[in-house]
Design goal:
Structural class: mainly alpha
Oligomer: single chain
Strand content: under 5%
Number of strands: 0
Helix content: 55-70%
Largest sheet: none
Amino acid sequence: MLTPKHSSPYKYASNSVTSVMMWVVLALLPVIGVQTYIFGWGVVVNVLFTVAVALGVEGLMLAMRKRPIFPFLSDGSVVITAILLGLALPPLAPWWLMVVGISFAVIFAKHLYGGLGYNPFNPAMVAYAMLLVSFPLEMTMWFPPHELNNNPLNLIETITVIFTGQLPGQLSLDSLSMATPLDSLKTELGLDKSISQITTGNPLFGWFGGAGWEWVSFAALAGGCGLIYKKIISWHIPIAVIGSITLLSGVFYLIDAEQYASPLFHIFSGATLLGAFFIATDPVTASTTPVGRLIYGAGIGLLTYVIRTWGGYPDAIAFAVLLMNISAPTIDYYTRPRIFGYGDKK
């Protein structure tokens, strides 16, 4: 008797959803480690707390929908959503902000559409965009890089701030939080300053990107290349995202280097590389055809640069991804590979 493995036309994949998600988690570990080293223990607290809340909300929704709980909880998809949202939130974000964000991601951006495989939008980016629009003050309280911060908080102090809002000693959130490099550059360019005036002697800016963010971006690049090597993701979307941002920023940088930041700054500041490798490549919400992936990624890069430069939000990865999520079905429809033999002359 033939077993299913011998029955055509089935092809058995070596990767399951769980194994793919676990590889993504492993690839994100360098990002978590570097971001924690630079921005403090709040990064670890964010990630662990959002994962815990996400698992609880996911289990509750599965129970309400009368779906098997353990198989869906163990596939790792909600863990990836929680980690990405945790990394996107400020390290001293209050606990309730994380609860609201991850609950919105799981309930409204995932389960109300039918669960994994049916959601048209990236749940982590839906939650991030909602939080940014609804709670702009809390979403901009970024902790300065550790080498710039004169008042580093230990793990206990960090947990106390996040869950009680009480700071040790005479410190205040205003004294600990600061604008991101992208936000600072955009704000000061609006005050008719040149880029050289803004960046010279400013500790927010590093060698070619935002101070601290350069190393986070390198970690994302390393993890993303590992995913491509393991064939967890394809190269099309990351290369298209990075290539389109490089091309657009390069053109405007050549036109006026004092008003438009360099391509290296755009690539190694904010969430560009994290978005290119870990967010834009979401297999559920991204384009699936080879040509479509290139168009999809190029659109994300284009929208990211346009929103960063002329829009109202400095780091536009979330909005760019969501806008291209809308376009993905149409892109796939018009870029379907030609069926072998179809249209050939007889």
